[in-house]
Predict the structure.
Amino acid sequence: MNTKDMTTAILAAKQRAGLTWATLGDRLGLSDVFLASCCYGENTLAPEAAATLANALDLGDDVKTALCQSPLKGQSLGQSVPTDPLVYRFYEIMQVYGLTLKDVIQEKFGNGIMSAIDFSMKVERVDDPKGARVLVTLDGKFLPYKSW
Amino acid sequence: MNTKDMTTAILAAKQRAGLTWATLGDRLGLSDVFLASCCYGENTLAPEAAATLANALDLGDDVKTALCQSPLKGQSLGQSVPTDPLVYRFYEIMQVYGLTLKDVIQEKFGNGIMSAIDFSMKVERVDDPKGARVLVTLDGKFLPYKSW
Amino acid sequence: MNTKDMTTAILAAKQRAGLTWATLGDRLGLSDVFLASCCYGENTLAPEAAATLANALDLGDDVKTALCQSPLKGQSLGQSVPTDPLVYRFYEIMQVYGLTLKDVIQEKFGNGIMSAIDFSMKVERVDDPKGARVLVTLDGKFLPYKSW
Amino acid sequence: MNTKDMTTAILAAKQRAGLTWATLGDRLGLSDVFLASCCYGENTLAPEAAATLANALDLGDDVKTALCQSPLKGQSLGQSVPTDPLVYRFYEIMQVYGLTLKDVIQEKFGNGIMSAIDFSMKVERVDDPKGARVLVTLDGKFLPYKSW
Amino acid sequence: MNTKDMTTAILAAKQRAGLTWATLGDRLGLSDVFLASCCYGENTLAPEAAATLANALDLGDDVKTALCQSPLKGQSLGQSVPTDPLVYRFYEIMQVYGLTLKDVIQEKFGNGIMSAIDFSMKVERVDDPKGARVLVTLDGKFLPYKSW
Amino acid sequence: MNTKDMTTAILAAKQRAGLTWATLGDRLGLSDVFLASCCYGENTLAPEAAATLANALDLGDDVKTALCQSPLKGQSLGQSVPTDPLVYRFYEIMQVYGLTLKDVIQEKFGNGIMSAIDFSMKVERVDDPKGARVLVTLDGKFLPYKSW
Amino acid sequence: MNTKDMTTAILAAKQRAGLTWATLGDRLGLSDVFLASCCYGENTLAPEAAATLANALDLGDDVKTALCQSPLKGQSLGQSVPTDPLVYRFYEIMQVYGLTLKDVIQEKFGNGIMSAIDFSMKVERVDDPKGARVLVTLDGKFLPYKSW
Amino acid sequence: MNTKDMTTAILAAKQRAGLTWATLGDRLGLSDVFLASCCYGENTLAPEAAATLANALDLGDDVKTALCQSPLKGQSLGQSVPTDPLVYRFYEIMQVYGLTLKDVIQEKFGNGIMSAIDFSMKVERVDDPKGARVLVTLDGKFLPYKSW
Amino acid sequence: MNTKDMTTAILAAKQRAGLTWATLGDRLGLSDVFLASCCYGENTLAPEAAATLANALDLGDDVKTALCQSPLKGQSLGQSVPTDPLVYRFYEIMQVYGLTLKDVIQEKFGNGIMSAIDFSMKVERVDDPKGARVLVTLDGKFLPYKSW
Amino acid sequence: MNTKDMTTAILAAKQRAGLTWATLGDRLGLSDVFLASCCYGENTLAPEAAATLANALDLGDDVKTALCQSPLKGQSLGQSVPTDPLVYRFYEIMQVYGLTLKDVIQEKFGNGIMSAIDFSMKVERVDDPKGARVLVTLDGKFLPYKSW
């Protein structure tokens, strides 16, 4: 079973079951963001987690197996500049604030980068009389450049 | 004075003065991220803030004027896919987690997007025995799609 | 049912039924533009509207469900520079008048943008002895940039 | 004098003079949008209008001459997908609503396009308790396809 | 029936029938160029013409219907820079003579463009002892730019 | 003297002298289109023609020399998809009618192409009560494919 | 039968029959290079040659017909910059020696080009103690630019 | 002295001296093609050859030094798809005959490539009553793929 | 059987059999890297090796045949800039260290390149208390540029 | 002093001084590869190392300062697909062996990547009767993906 079919099967089953990523993540002891990324074929589940998920959504062994494979990442979007407005805004933030991020991070940490591998991400809702706000927290290990 | 020259002048003066974005931001009552983004020509300073900054860095009226102009944004990087490893990691996060972000945000908020305009961003350092971590918090207003 | 199949099914049924977007929009209390954009998979219908539409066009539950899903937007065209002359003219207007729009909007509103989310659009026909004219009105909330 | 220098000279003089496109347009009997587009090198002024403008902004004959030349259009932005958020939103509208516009325009007019040459555009501010709104009206002649 | 299938069906039937675009065009009172462009899904036939053509080629109602739909144009080639030598030569002419065409047309007509909508095209063969020559005549309405 | 400077010098001198491509072409016994293409650095003038032109426009030996050099063609536009509306329409014709041209030309001539080297082009104005029309005639030798 | 299927069928039959392009070319009185290019859908065979080839490879009428159609050229590779090392080396030669070829050819022939239509190509093996060498000979008619 | 300036200086001096690549190559014991490629900054001359050339063209030490540096290759053209017709024809040959070359070369040599490094190239003129022909011979070592 | 299907079949069989590239390579007397590259359709196996592999994985003759065909290389990734983080890091190394590699290699070897054809590659694991390290060794023949 | 000027100054001084990266690296206690990458503006030197280098090459304070700045990486090449044959071969290796590297690395290490930040690289010359070989060793920390 390829990644695309796996994603389609999971999204359909999740909708039928009326479950959210948050609820499913709680059952697996995983965050909603990480779990969703596995189901979009961008991360890998451990075998037991895959089994629990397949069970919760009443899906077969092919889905379970596909969830444990090491995916070729960055394929789900299929566009180097995204067209979906929600996704594009993250591209725009990178374009507009890229040099700023480089400069401020290096001011605080020295020469290096924020890892996107030793990394987690969180999405929170903050209600506010002027309109709810989306809080996205990126948490990556600082990796200093080395000389040799 | 064009944006590139303004940025060059400010970065050189800031280095001479031995000041950080954080210190300068404190003097202007602005965050380091926002201030840096203005100096990279990606946001606009109010006239008094521009005057205070030019003063602190001993820069002339041309810099002050340039800081108040409404910039053409997204130009500082000059690449649709960034090559710098630090900046690229943010592009990679968008590529790898784009669909995940769309799905999780819409699960928590309904149909809509996170604004990149009614928006702020914060960079924090979290020390840890296993190595310092970079915490980047994106805080944008949720904008629901409307029907008409 | 994926978006493409949904669009194909609706367009075929609409042609068979001999109905226009305007007529269908009236039945749903929605504008022709918004309704068409939902059927091209670029916006989402509320469940009752989807049911009414499926009914009017004698289409099944799969279409109804598909119309309520949150689509990945900007996918229907599939080209970063459009080749169709009608669509290209809108691209051309953006290319030719982009800086002008930025300058004139910011002169009238201050530093910020026109939202494409809190947004509606209208297409009107103005008859004229020298030839009919197309009037497209874009109506988006002004979102001021904030400092922080 | 090339187009870029002409634009720079005019924008600087306009800022010094503290004049708006609207005021300047009134003096020339032209809309603010059209006048701005000429100054960004995307449209051509008639000789008398160019003279009046150069006079109002205290600029020389080289600017006056440059304003009357037939420009190579679509060059001012210099990007096939714009990065500036304000300009990008117009690109996004074209991407998201391109097929919709084609379908609705052709439903109302038959087979053809909206001209971007026999064309004018207007930007208006509509104040509103929930926040000002930007109204952009595109007004182009309908050009029917012909058979032969 | 989508455009690609329509084109395939027509080309196969035309080959079986041993008919040329010229012969078929004569029966429909249309030029060979216009007729071929309709069959490649780049223009639209009137219902009677579509019926006559389907009849001449012994094709069904699905082809007839498809020929009357308003196609998304510029899709048949599927390349922004064409690789076929015959088609590329037209791209090359545009690249090599683009500025020349702009200058000479505007010298003869003033500021404006040649329409590609109110437009027809003709291909002729001129025999010559040194080798036959291809004569392609483009005939488009001049559209002057307007000020407003 | 490089090509860009040559073009700038000629266009400025031509404007000062108030001469057209047609007038200048007549003096050199060349068509306006060919002469303009030489001045845009896309074709080469014979030495005597270059001398006559330099004389007519009161330009120096550097321009004369530059006009005789074999230029790197297709550089004057500098864009693979042109943004100028007049030039774009020729690109659009190639996109929309590319397959049609291939089919109709090969129907009339057999397997081969229209040369863009053994080639000339003509621009004519046809006045008409409904608006003037631009007639562009492309005249290229047919080159048959050979087998070997 | 489309081009891709034709190529697949021929390659499989040729492998089954254990024949080379050279042997097959000899039977048809054609060079191996030309014959292979026809089978990759980049050139056209005459009807008798197509019949002989189909016969030799025990293939049906659909292949025979497909071999005689005028193909859309340059499609077989499907990449504007090739990734296969063998093919890339030819791209590299064009990139590295492009200006050199232009200059040396024009020094020997005057202003013009080497035709890729009135053209043939030959691949030879030259054995050598230091390792065999590939000799590729391109033989194209010189086409002089003309003035008009 | 950078590569571009070196090339400009050499081409101008060569034109002043009225010398050809062939004549100059003879003096250096090098082919015209190789010598021209060095002067376009795509290959490197040995120090004595550089001195002889600089002498022959009456050029200074900066040119001599620049000719001996190891250039970053493939930069002289500056386009991934060339626009100049002469250069484009070589790109077209690669596009149209790429798979053919791969297949025929591998049929004659086994699995491997033609080197573009252990490589030479020759341009010859063949006169012919039907028009002169350009013969370009590419001569590269065959490099077999290895397994390991 | 095309390359994609061959790869899919092998990967599935390898997973079922619970075998590694290292184990399989040992049986065939080939390195894990080379063997894997053959199975991804980027290199070719000798017939006996293909038979042994097909046997070990219980796969049919179609796989065996496909493994012996000379593949069109560089197709498996399908992206000019890879999105998968593991693969991208190799792209990043090329971007960041490209000029450095050129300079250091040419300092040690003179003017020339490292072959990617007469080439092998090895991946090793080095354990370390601070975390395991990946050692990738590229071993290519030096090919000197020649003059001619 | 910007990066480009810094690189030019260092390369010229190094050539004048007749020093190699290896010799200079020895004086600074750094490898030739790392030192060269700093001089191409792709890594940062510590202040003392920068002072030692500037001293060794008789360069001023501006170079010393520039060497210590945190560069925007990946800019020196300026091409997403490199044209220089030496650099391109590394791109080719990434294209041809990308999936292989992913699979073999993950087989040996589990799910994760090789870091390009906690990374060093070495270039060695191995002499051999059949021709010298280039050995490039990439040594990066393995970074496992984490779940959260």
Observations:
- Residues 28 and 49 of chain G are 6 Å apart (CA to CA).
- DSSP finds six helices and two strands in chain G.
- The two ends of chain G are 45 Å apart (CA to CA).
- Helices of chain G lie at 3-17, 21-28, 32-39, 47-56, 61-68, 85-109.
